[in-house]
Amino acid sequence: MTGPTLQQHTTDDGPPVATRGRDTRRLLRGVLVRLGTALLVLFCAATVSFFLVRLSGDPVKLLLPPDATAQQEAVLRSSLGLDRPLFTQYADFLQGLPRLDFGNSLFYNEPVRTVLADRLPATLQLAAAALVVTLIVAVPAGIFAAMRRGRASDRGVMTMVLLGQSTPPFWVGILLILVFAVGLHSLPASGCGTFAHLILPSITLAVYSVAVVARLLRSSLIDVLSSDHIRTARAKGFGPLKVVLTHGLRNASLPVVTVVGLEIGSLLGGAILTEQVFSWPGVGQLTIEAISHRDFPLVQATVLLFAATFVVVNLLVDLSYSFLDPRVRTSR
What is the pLDDT at residue 8? Predict the structure, then answer.
């Protein structure tokens, strides 16, 4: 007597049990591979930052007055541990990474974790505000341009987008300060603490991201809107906006999600110049200070922070594909 095998057993609401098990194992294996790759990237970033930052010079020369004697320099260098062999310092640095122990800042004479914890909230606040501005402006602009493809309004939107993408952010910041702070006296030119202080830096930081997301969303939507299922939806009598929002936007979201994820990391990295222009007390400004002071532990920590942001965001974006497009889930 014959009967269905285990591989043929199905549930009432899904594919065969064995098939779902294989998909789960395949997805888990993919996650583990990506986690391993992420750790390797972070290790490489830590190694490169450790050795490159030491090419900038001797920090002892900056920490002591110009008339310091050689003996004073030797004593300070020994107290900072800079007189030990380079690879011994490197081994100690790697041993502290799992505990997030980056040592003490040479300039601030405090644990690096404490210094970063004081500055990180300001940078996260600025990057979050810039991301909100990016999505609020770029998504409607991309949808509008795709729906008005080839018309004057589409060309107008794309011209503004191209202008934003080709304009240096620091120049945008200076221009905004001249107009709204110096000319109109309506917004503060620098500082941190109130919502008004956040407006100009967040707009400055978001200009490039708005252009990138809007252009990609327009291009992706134009491709999707020419597909068969969109023509079917239109034949059923759905309005243009409903067709785009209900049937087109999700299918066009994969490349957009990728770029938005990359832009999150870029917003944190781009905050370095923006924070300098607006005297925003975040990690970006701290990085410039650390480089100018040759603060080796602090520079290494900020580089790793930016690298970890890119790695984690890319990992989350990659994993989100499985939820946005079932075809990606089954192909892994």
Answer: 45
Three-state DSSP class for residue 111 = strand
Instruction: Quote the Cα angle for 145-149-150, to 5°.
Output: 125
Q: What is the pLDDT of residues 118-167, one digit of tens each?
A: 998 998 899 899 999 998 998 888 888 887 787 888 888 888 888 888 88
**CA 61 – CA 76 distance, rounded (Å):** 10
Q: At what angle do helices 112-147 and 152-166 cross, to 10 degrees?
A: 160
Answer yes or no: are the C-beta atoms of 135 and 212 closer than 8 Å: no
Closest CA to 135 of 247, 260, 315, 268: 260
* Residue 261: count of CB within 10 angstroms of its CB: 19
Q: Using the 8-state DSSP alphabet, how is residue 184 labeled?
A: S
Q: pTM for the whole thing?
A: 0.77
Both tokens of residue 319?
């994993």
Lookup result for tokens 């929002």: 245
What are the distances in angstroms from CA 94 to CA 82, 90, 109?
16, 6, 21
CB atoms under 10 Å from CB of 279, counted, come to 14
Nearest to 299 by CA among 282, 314, 317, 286: 286
Q: Treating both helix axes as pointing N-terminal to C-terminal, what angle do 283-292 and 296-324 enclose, rounded to 10 degrees?
A: 150
Here the tokens at position 208 are 């490039």
What's at 127, amino acid-wise?
A
Query: Would you tell me how many other CB atoms lie within 10 Å of the CB of residue 33?
Result: 10
**Helical ranges in the chain per DSSP H:** 17-53, 60-63, 70-79, 86-96, 112-147, 152-166, 169-176, 195-225, 228-235, 240-242, 253-278, 283-292, 296-324, 326-331
d(CA 301, CA 293): 14
- Phi then psi dihedrals of residue 111, to 5 deg: -55, 140
